[in-house]
Design a protein that fits this description.
Strand content: 25-35%
Shape: globular
Radius of gyration: 20 Å
Largest sheet: 4 strands, mixed
Structural class: alpha+beta
Distance between the termini: 58 Å
Strand order of the largest sheet: 1-2-7-9
Number of helices: 6
Number of domains: 1
Order of helices and strands: HEEEHEEHEEHEHHE
Length: about 190
């Protein structure tokens, strides 16, 4: 009888832990919807597809989005992902160094999708990514792209004790347009 009681407690505890984990994973309230368009270029007999991912920030705080090319890095903590993208040295600089040293004076900042790109999505706003690719496409571009997208919020960063949102110049060098257009060949 005592073992049955312990087993029940373990089952209930496991269920509660699972629910808490599920809630924390989904706490960003990030919604990604997909729209597809196709068109032909008749004089060269080519068919193309435009895939649009709409990323909606359904939180009441800003959301920071960037891309990580190494999808095996997805298993790391959000703190590790932030450190890799913003604080690790890429060539002669780190992204946070560019933001803090040149963020107030830099104009016409040319961004690289996997090294210097990031977007701040305001609360209740949507950011779109359009990928143009030739049909037939041998890869699942949407799956690949979704695996590369990383997002975080100030609340998550407080838990990691990283105040990335308080860096002076962060908003100024954020990608400003509401749509990013990518050639599918580049992914």
């Amino acid at each position: 009888m005592k073992q049955t009681s312990i087993k029940k407690r373990i089952e209930i505890g496991s269920l509660i832990l699972f629910l808490l984990l599920w809630v924390s994973i989904n706490s960003l309230a990030q919604k990604i919807s997909e729209v597809r368009y196709t068109y032909n270029v008749s004089n060269v007999q080519s068919k193309y597809e435009i895939i649009q991912l709409n990323i909606r920030n359904d939180t009441n705080e800003k959301m920071l989005l960037w891309f990580e090319q190494d999808t095996s890095f997805q298993k790391k903590s959000i703190g590790d992902k932030v450190k890799r993208h913003f604080f690790s040295t890429k060539g002669y600089f780190s992204l946070v160094r560019v933001i803090t040293e040149y963020g107030s004076t830099l104009t016409g900042f040319e961004t690289d999708l996997f090294f210097t790109f990031y977007k701040i999505i305001e609360p209740q706003k949507t950011f779109s990514i359009q990928v143009i690719c030739k049909i037939p496409n041998k890869r699942d571009i949407v799956k690949s792209l979704k695996e590369m997208i990383i997002t975080t919020t100030p609340t998550q960063m407080e838990k990691e004790r990283l105040n990335i949102f308080k860096i002076d110049g962060l908003e100024r060098l954020s990608f400003q347009p509401v749509t990013l257009i990518i050639n599918g060949v580049d992914l």
